[in-house]
Design brief:
Helices cover 32% and strands 28% of the residues. It has a single domain (4-91), classed as 3-Layer(aba) Sandwich (Glutaredoxin). By secondary structure, it is α/β, with parallel strands linked by helices. A hairpin with a 6-residue loop joins β4 and β5.
């Protein structure tokens, strides 16, 4: 399954309210580590069908989502579970 490119807060909200576990990759086009991990995420997205993979460009149309979740380093991965307001954050600091 391809990785969904979220370009608005509406698309983000719709996705995380869905029935699947969602992993969101917050990235920047100039970020070396983001570009290095992108092919690995594509592979995972094709192998793990029970998780919806998505990405948000922190400088793009949905940058307000990155600001809301206080994303300051890239790449940052946040996992949203259906019906649960808790999120799990994985970043280079962890």
């Amino acid at each position: 399954m391809p990785i969904t490119d979220l370009t608005s807060t509406t698309s983000f909200t719709t996705l995380i309210k869905g029935p699947k576990l969602v992993l969101i990759d917050f990235y920047a086009t100039w970020c070396g580590p983001c570009n290095a991990i992108a092919p690995k995420l594509e592979k995972l997205a094709n192998e793990i069908r029970t998780v919806q993979f998505a990405k948000i460009n922190v400088e793009g149309g949905a940058k307000s989502v990155a600001e809301e979740y206080k994303v300051t380093g890239m790449p940052t991965f946040i996992i949203f579970a259906p019906g649960i307001h808790t999120r799990y954050v994985i970043t280079k600091r962890n």
